[in-house]
Automatic annotation (TrEMBL):
The organism's taxonomic lineage, starting at the top: Bacteria, Bacillati, Bacillota, Clostridia, Eubacteriales
InterPro entries on file: ArsR-like_HTH (IPR011991), HTH_ArsR_DNA-bd_dom (IPR001845), HTH_MetalResp_TranReg (IPR051081), WH-like_DNA-bd_sf (IPR036388), WH_DNA-bd_sf (IPR036390)
Pfam families, per the entry: HTH_5
Residues making up the signal peptide according to the UniProt record: none
PANTHER family for the chain: TRANSCRIPTIONAL REGULATOR, ARSR FAMILY, TRANSCRIPTIONAL REPRESSOR SDPR
Residues covered by the HTH arsR-type domain: 1-93
Protein name, entry field: ArsR family transcriptional regulator
Length: 97
């Protein structure tokens, strides 16, 4: 996969409302999948599929801690993407009034 294809994969992964919500939920640090399951109101199978897509895009990483799987953003660069999009949205909505 070349750089352009990976970039598109990242945007596609972040483009889904549930996956965006997962990334925002993990913005401030790792969380157990059980906490994600409480916050994201979907079945375990559905949540697992979204987590898989985010991992395959390089956005999330995970590690087993005891009996639980903990997910986190794979890098602070993901936070920068989220921050920049949030700034753009504020600027866009302010300018469109």
């Amino acid at each position: 996969m070349d750089k352009e294809e990976l970039s598109v994969k990242v945007f596609k992964a972040l483009g889904h409302p549930i996956r965006y919500k997962i990334v925002k939920f993990l913005y401030n640090g790792p969380k157990c999948v059980c906490k994600l399951n409480e916050d994201i109101e979907f079945s375990q199978a559905n949540l697992s599929q979204h987590l898989k897509i985010l991992k395959e895009a390089g956005i999330l990483s995970c590690e087993k801690v005891g009996m639980n799987m903990h997910y986190r953003l794979s890098s602070d660069e993901i936070k920068n993407i989220i921050d920049n999009v949030d700034k753009f949205v504020v600027s866009f909505t302010d300018n469109s009034k």
